[in-house]
Amino acid sequence: MAKVVPRGAGDAVNSDAAGFIADVSSATIRRRATEAAACGKPLGILIAGSIWLISKRRLIDWIRDHEGEYAALCAMTRATKLTQMSATLQASAPNERATTA
Hints:
By secondary structure, the protein is mainly α. The chain has helices at residues 15-22, 26-38, 56-67, 69-91, and strands at 12-14, 44-47, 51-55.
């Protein structure tokens, strides 16, 4: 199997997020990742035989190659939106626990 080299922080996403980016179900992403890995062009890495971590860059390249430039641009927009939503959630103030005196 070919080695997947991450392209920086935040490149790897789970199959649910990859499905959002590609506008397909997470099951379809897992199937595409398995097929791509079998062809020697993996979209990500399989951990413990059940969890896929998908490279956003490789996923968008795959979409461009198989579905065209317009679909890749739409996927890039969804990937940007996902990153912005995640950043907003991470920047939210953490819940503080009430302490008892």
